[in-house]
Input
Amino acid sequence: MRSPVISRRHVLAGAAAVPLLPRAARATVKRGGRLIVAADSEPANLNPAIIASNGVFFVASKVMEPLAEASYEGRDGLAPRLATGWQAAADGRSITFSLRQGVSWHDGQKFTSADVAFSALEVWKKLGNLGRAVFRELEAVETPDAHTAVFRFAVPTPVQLIRNALPALTSVVPKHLFEGTDIMRNPANRALVGTGPFRFAENRPGEYTRLVRNASYWEAGRPFLDEIVYRVLPDRAAAANALEAEEIQLAAFSAVPLADLDRIARVPGLKVFSTGYEGLTYQLVVEINHRRKELSDLRVRRALAHAIDRDFVVRTIFRGFASVSQGPVPRNDRVFHAPEMAGYGFSPARANALLDEAGYLRASDGVRFRLRLLPAPFFNETRQFGDYLRQALAVVGIDAVIVANDTPAHLKAVYTDHAFDITVASPVYRGDPAISTTILFQSGMPAGVPFANQYGYANAEVDALIKQAAGTIDDAERVRLYRAFQKQVTDDVALINVAEFSFISVARDNLVGVSNNPRWAVSHWADLGFAG
Amino acid sequence: MARPLRLVGRRLVGVVPVFMLVVVGAFLLLEAAPGDAVDAYLGGIGGGDAAQMAALRAEWGLDRGPLPRLAAYVAALLRLDLGWSTAFARPVLAVVLERLPNTLLLMGLASGLALALGSALGVVCGARPGSVRDRVLSLAAIAIYAMPGFWLGLVLIVAFSVELRWLPSGGMETVASGLRGWDRAVDVGRHMVLPVFALGLVYMALYLRLMRDGMAELWAQDFVRAARARGMGGARLVLRHVARNALLPVVTMLGLQSAAMLGGSVVIESVFAIPGLGRLAAEAVARRDTPLLLGVVLLSAVVVMTVNLVIDLAYALLDPRVGSGTGG
Output
């Protein structure tokens, strides 16, 4: 870490994540107060059961609740929300959820198992942008009583996968408002009605969205805050200025850019948190078009991997707020993580030797061949790494020509037209390899599907492993298969995992309960409040 | 009164082809950008599958070619239907009308500031061209003119919001303040000070230069010398004869600059988090929301044409020779 100030705050913020510390602090949290946070976007559809994206969850997770939330200390990394327990049948064909009692929707109706059954079958399975894949084989949801829901699957389904999907893909919607309507055009997708600690109050387009305290929340004494206001601040510098001017009290999702952190960390009254995002890990990845003749050669792909100094990338581009990637599953998932990339250390000499061996000798101008490099415009860091990659590849005689696009143009070029040689991408890891990782390697993806294998990479063994794991219900065997899968795609250098990064939150130091779970920014915030 | 009315009539007839050109031009420009609204949407929500994408394209009419879509848009436009915004999932008309007052307020105040301050300081300089006063003010104007608007905005925020804490750093008004009537007007006014200066100062510098240079030339004109020979002098000569005639190019420029100011407001509205038309246009492009972009462009065209019409009318009052001919 460059700055000792940040480093100390960093450690303190990390300590706050340990459950023992906030318990002492909890006694001093006062009831009430308005929290104003920075928001950079306003999704037109705020329904988290349909759109599982961070922009939606940031607001919606306070209003609508999933069956379970991610947790640092809970069993299987989960804390119960609308479900209090879950039990899988031995044959993997059904999972029984016990639901919380005494829960009401914000309009006063009772929450029952019928809401869960409706949400699962009509929304998650049919409309969820990610839920459609996970709940594809969900056949029926039985509701023997008002507080039990039995999910029946057409094929054996790993409970581990369903568990890992609970925080992001199981927000429950009120059946009485959605049944018999055009769900995608239902006004309750904007003016949310949920069971959560906050009620949706108003949206002023382009200005703010306001949530107010749900006085009849099921958890006694919660939430602490009276109001949460999401103020739309589209400019990169705006969040930092508004924090300093004390107009807002919290900027999550790195709304304060890494470049400004050194300065902002020294402002009295502000605290920097790098924890609370472990469940939202992004991966900095080089996507490779295997259709390109040079790149279809394994030696060339290995040379690319050896040309990248991952430590340098973490140190300079991410200013230390990232870690070196060792494989397709990030290290935050301790269950599935397999450190397979360890063999691809930084060595331009090795890269040069591999390229020579592959027969791509340097021409008189020192260039072996040219590549089109398309850095994704999603983050400052993806663009900056594109610049770095161009320089790193020049050292080994590859001339990478940067093609800069905005988001729609980038998606079309890479995932529809395949008009690229290499890219810089930032896939997000979503808690289970079957949700977010296998899609990057499985062959046979129709052109046009974004954030998926549009790379022309096809390995029958990998496809077989993915298929086998999808039907494996034993946890340990499933883990073994996904580790074998990771080893295979890493040996193939199907793509290059460079770094794992997440976000930074900056908050006023009198805000208590920040970053206390692995998906904190997109969780309920019932326990967030101002120090009293 | 007949003359101004004729002017208005001539303008309205000329408006229709201009609107068509604007619509077709903006449509083709956005069409030339790769990727469509579904690509933009999926980028925002983090992915989806092929069936979902096909269904969305069918729902938003993107499964048709560009020409049928343009024809359908123009046909709807003739019925005064601006269409549906895919990015906001609302009718375009509702989205743009919501933002129009904010942009008009920002532009109106910035133009007013630029015109008032610019011409006043221009008169101060132009009254004694070459004096120390003139040189200092002219130099300052050039320095301001050279500053990019977004930079000026950020500097103003750091100085007056972050350090001095006199004024809010952005937004139209205090969020969910519950203020009403006069209190709310004052609150909005406080929020407008910094963006109005950030947008208006550059134009103020421009008008100052125009006014000053116009006056400097006029001092050598025969009618000024004649007035002087008749014994006229002081403020009466400066204001009635010299400044009034120098005001003409300034007013012309005000009309021309209204379009440029609308462009400048894209940046200022982003820096100051003001929900206006400029920011909306940028969002429409980023999300490939063609109906929304066309709605913004059409509304902007209406604004610019209205401003220029008003300017022409004002011009006719300032200079009786204008507008009497058949060219106009």
Remarks:
- The mean pLDDT of chain A is 91.
- The longest strand of chain A covers residues 138-145.
- Chain A has 17 helices and 22 strands.
